[in-house]
Structure formats: C-alpha cells, structure tokens
C-alpha cells in the first residue's frame, strides 16, 4: 500500500508541474529526485543510475535522433519541401482528413525514437488555414502514429511479448488488430469533426511535388528495409540534402547547430533518468509484488499491472518485460486472451503516460495544454479497453 501512495505522489507531482507548463525534462528530473528520496535510494545507487543514464546506448541514440530530426526539419522547412509534400498529399489523397493524418501514420511506421517530432511540423503544415486548436493538432499527431505498435513486428514490444509468452506472433498480431482499428476509428471520433471536403486540385504540380517525399521515403527505406538505425539514416539523408542544395560549410554548420539545443538535452536526460530510477528504485517490482501478495483476481491484475507499468514508464518494452513474466506465473501459463488483454492494458497506460516520449515531444512542439490532449486520449483509451474486454471474453 505504501508503494501505491509513493507512486501516486510522484504521478500527481508530474501532472501538476506539466499543467504549469514546465519543461517536461525538468519535471522528470524533479520526479526522479523525488522517487530517489521516497525509496531511500543509497548515494552509490543514485550515482550508478545517473551513470547508466548517460552511458546507455538508447540515451545516446535518442539524443542524436532528436537533434538530427530538428536539423532535417529546418532544411525541409526552409527549402519549402514540407509545403510541397502537403501539396502532393492534397492532390493524391484529395480529402482533407486523409491528408492531415497521412504524415503521422506514415512516420509511425518507423519504430523510431522521436518520430512524433518528425511528423509534427507536417501536421502543422497540413492544418494551416483550418480552425483547429493546438491541442487537437497535438492529438492527431500523437494518436494516429500509434496503431502500428499493436501489430507491426518492427516494434520490439510485440516481439518481446511473443518471445516471453511463447504465443505465436501471427496470432498475437491478428487479435491486436482490433485495437489498431479502434485507434484509427476513435481518432476520427474525437478530432477533425469540423474538417470537411477536399483541397483544391492542382494537377499540373502533382508529378513535380511527388519528389518532395524522397527524403522521408529514403529514411523509411533505410530503417525498415535495410535495418539501419534512425540516427544514421537521418545523418545520411541530411548529408545528401546538403549536397543537393549546395550548402556552404557555414550554412551546414548553422543547420546542425539548430538541432543541438538545451531543451533536447534536458528532455532526453530527464526521460531516461526517470526510466532508470523507476527500475533501480524497485518501484515497479514492489507494485507487482504487492498485488500478488494481496491475492486480487486475475482479470484486475491483467489490467492494473501492465497499465501502471506503462503509465509510469511510457515505454511498451518496459511494461512487457516488467510484468508479463509475473502475469504468466499468476495466471498459470500464457493464454492468448489474457496476454492480448494485458498488452492492450499496458499500451493504454503508455498512451496515457505523461512521460511517453511521443506525448512529450508532441506537446512540446505544439505548446499544447496537457489537459486538452487528455480530453481526447482518455475517452479513446476507454473505448480501446472496452474492445479489449470484449475480445478477452470472446476468446
């Protein structure tokens, strides 16, 4: 019970400071310190956690990915590539709603750190001239990039779930398809209600503007087909653009320097430090053990454990690796209905997590009010969990 109180205090503190529009990086640094105090972490453990955060390959890759994304965005914006991409989307897709969601869904195919920051300027560009709040734009960018994580084998979460439970990946994907469709459907239910019709057609520019997609398609090809990590793919693409647009060394330095901002450093370090502090303090492990000791029925546990883990870490791999082995032992084995329900529960927690990187970056880009985004994500998640409960009993 004490662990629940501690985690509740930390979560409330995070929400309060985010509501006050503090930088999420500083909020997570503060939350990490509060976590260390509440769990009485020894000084050597704290120092080890900081060292692990700085040296972790994910931290380093995330930092370079986000900085290069900012640099790439600057090139695409200054050279009018983004506007040409939107023009091409208008000509090809025609319907306004299809154009708006196309970029988050396309970039969402990339299992990349910081991908939401890549699609955000494209959503901003595609909604120009429309009466739409920053919170609605943020919701669109955030929500429509996430159907893939339920079903795309490129994402490590579903692969790890299959590996841990021994359930065939194909079976897990087929059942999870329900939740992916619900994300797509609820996205239209809770956004773009006032968006109707299509964009004016400009056939004469269609073929020329299609070339504007090459930078994004090249990155997708390298990451998905050639299995090149995102930061390498971004770096290579930026180099090609430097050559294509004949950037001088001074101009290239200006673009690269644009990506290396203090905000990116703080966000990356704060996010990763909170993740490592959660693990090293024993917070997630203590919560899991508490529910096991109390003897709560299996269905509530299948929801509560993955949901809380996803909510607190904001990472799919985090809730799968920390709770699925325990859930299997409590349930007496791996059953498809239980595992798919647990996966839906955990990912709902991830979608609602204020420390989920996509949420953090989307909110940061659009300067959106956290409550405004939650007003759309919470009912969307409620519908997904209703579908998950129906699937649980059907199976």
From TrEMBL:
Which Pfam families would you find in this protein's record? DUF401 (PF04165)
Superkingdom of origin organism: Bacteria
Keyword line: Membrane, Transmembrane, Transmembrane helix
Entries under InterPro entries matching the protein: DUF401
Membrane-spanning segments: 7-40, 60-77, 98-120, 169-190, 232-248, 260-278, 298-327, 339-357, 377-394
Name under which the protein is recorded: DUF401 family protein
């Amino acid at each position: 019970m004490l662990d629940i109180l501690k985690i509740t205090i930390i979560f409330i503190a995070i929400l309060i400071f985010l509501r006050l529009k503090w930088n999420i990086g500083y909020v997570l640094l503060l939350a990490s310190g509060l976590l260390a105090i509440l769990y009485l972490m020894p000084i050597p453990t704290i120092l080890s956690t900081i060292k692990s955060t700085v040296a972790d390959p994910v931290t380093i890759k995330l930092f370079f990915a986000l900085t290069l994304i900012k640099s790439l965005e600057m090139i695409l914006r200054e050279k009018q590539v983004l506007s040409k991409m939107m023009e091409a989307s208008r000509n090809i897709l025609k319907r306004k709603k299809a154009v708006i969601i196309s970029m988050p869904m396309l970039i969402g195919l990339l299992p990349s750190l910081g991908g939401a920051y890549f699609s955000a300027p494209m959503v901003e560009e595609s909604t120009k001239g429309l009466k739409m709040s920053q919170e609605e734009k943020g919701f669109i960018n955030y929500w429509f990039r996430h159907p893939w994580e339920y079903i795309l084998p490129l994402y490590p979460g579903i692969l790890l779930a299959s590996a841990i439970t021994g359930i065939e990946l194909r079976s897990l994907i087929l059942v999870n398809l329900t939740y992916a469709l619900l994300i797509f459907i609820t996205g239209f239910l809770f956004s773009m209600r006032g968006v109707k019709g299509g964009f004016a057609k400009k056939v004469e520019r269609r073929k020329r503007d299609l070339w504007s997609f090459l930078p994004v398609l090249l990155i997708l090809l390298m990451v998905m087909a050639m299995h090149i990590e995102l930061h390498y793919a971004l770096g290579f693409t930026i180099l090609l653009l430097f050559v294509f647009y004949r950037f001088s060394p001074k101009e290239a330095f200006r673009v690269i320097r644009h990506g290396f901002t203090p905000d990116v450093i703080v966000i990356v370090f704060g996010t990763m430090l909170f993740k490592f502090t959660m693990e090293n303090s024993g917070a997630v492990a203590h919560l899991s053990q508490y529910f096991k000791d109390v003897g709560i029925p299996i269905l509530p546990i299948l929801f509560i454990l993955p949901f809380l883990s996803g909510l607190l870490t904001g990472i799919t791999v985090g809730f799968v690796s920390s709770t699925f082995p325990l859930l299997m032992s409590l349930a007496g084995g791996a059953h498809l209905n239980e595992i798919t329900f647990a996966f839906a529960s955990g990912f709902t927690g991830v979608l609602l997590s204020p420390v989920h990187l996509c949420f953090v970056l989307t909110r940061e880009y659009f300067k959106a009010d956290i409550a405004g985004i939650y007003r759309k994500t919470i009912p969307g998640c409620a519908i997904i969990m209703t579908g998950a409960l129906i699937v649980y009993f059907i199976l």
